[in-house]
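dumping this here before i forget
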Amino acid sequence: MKSSNPPRGAELPWRIARSCDGGACVRVAPSGEMVVIGDSKNPDGSVLFYPAAAWNRFVRDVKNGAFDHF
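structure:
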């Protein structure tokens, strides 16, 4: 995981949950071999970069209930 400030004017294909009501939502975008994660209410703020394979494992684990105890 790396933390960074995205370049100004960077256009990424951001995705936000359909249930996001304009509040504090996570946004996600692919960027080459990485997945970029940011805060929808602070689009110019810092973002996190994860390898796509790690993101895919995380999503799979969420779907399989691995984090249901939190």
